[in-house]
Specification:
seven-stranded mixed β-sheet, alpha+beta, single chain, 11 strands, 231 residues
């Protein structure tokens, strides 16, 4: 089995572990397209975009990148906690070619242990937001992690408008802002992918078929059709 090489963890790992357990956090979520999934499993890792773009492997360097500009940087993998950023997924889906019926989203559920990887950092909202990056700050501290669940979060959007989000009976394991991010700088081992979600049974059949034709052996129990994840 392929294991991640870099397993360096935060000095206060136990504080993170205790909070993850207390809140009932069971997974991180990363969405990508079905085009990328076979490459991920063939390579053995989810890798940051900066690594993919400079790879000598043509398949990796030509991965299906969802964001042309990546204003938040390219040296990490963007994840959310427990629920996907449907706002961003909807925006990206609208950019799909209307004639391409073979392309669809897959959501990869990842072990929450990457929360306390030493190089992982946290953002209370979209990491590309200028006000968030320059005024609020994005870092890997326990305090910043806790702030993802604050009762009230305030920032300014790209147009300068003031945004205030208040928790409204959200479960303890759900961040206040749907766009809150966990930014993972390490490679993420496929061994730490605990589920692959797709939206329809047809998508499920297509993905399994491509994996099989590609000669990539994956536990069939890893695949799951769950439309609710995408809503």
């Amino acid at each position: 089995m392929i294991e991640s090489i870099d397993v360096e963890e935060k000095d206060d790992k136990q504080r993170f572990m205790n909070e993850i357990t207390r809140r009932g956090i069971s997974k991180l979520l990363h969405f990508t397209t079905n085009i990328n999934v076979p490459y991920i499993f063939d390579e053995g890792f989810i890798k940051p975009r900066s690594t993919l773009e400079t790879s000598t492997d043509v398949n990796l360097s030509n991965s299906d990148f969802l964001d042309k500009y990546r204003l938040d940087g390219k040296d990490h993998t963007n994840c959310s906690i427990e629920r996907i950023n449907q706002k961003m997924m909807k925006f990206k889906r609208n950019n799909f070619s209307q004639n391409d019926f073979t392309k669809f989203f897959c959501v990869l559920a990842i072990s929450p242990k990457y929360i306390y990887r030493k190089s992982t950092i946290f953002s209370i909202t979209n990491a590309a937001n200028n006000y968030n990056r320059n005024t609020i700050g994005i870092d890997g501290s326990f305090e910043k992690f806790i702030s993802l669940f604050d009762l009230e979060i305030s920032y300014r959007d790209s147009s300068g408008h003031f945004i205030k989000i208040t928790r409204d009976k959200e479960p303890d394991n759900i961040p206040t802002d749907i766009q809150a991010e966990v930014l993972i700088h390490d490679n993420i081992s496929v061994n730490d992918i605990i589920q692959i979600y797709v939206e329809t049974e047809e998508n499920l059949r297509m993905l399994k078929s491509v994996m099989k034709v590609s000669g990539i052996r994956v536990d069939p129990n890893l695949f799951k059709c769950n439309p609710d994840i995408f809503q």
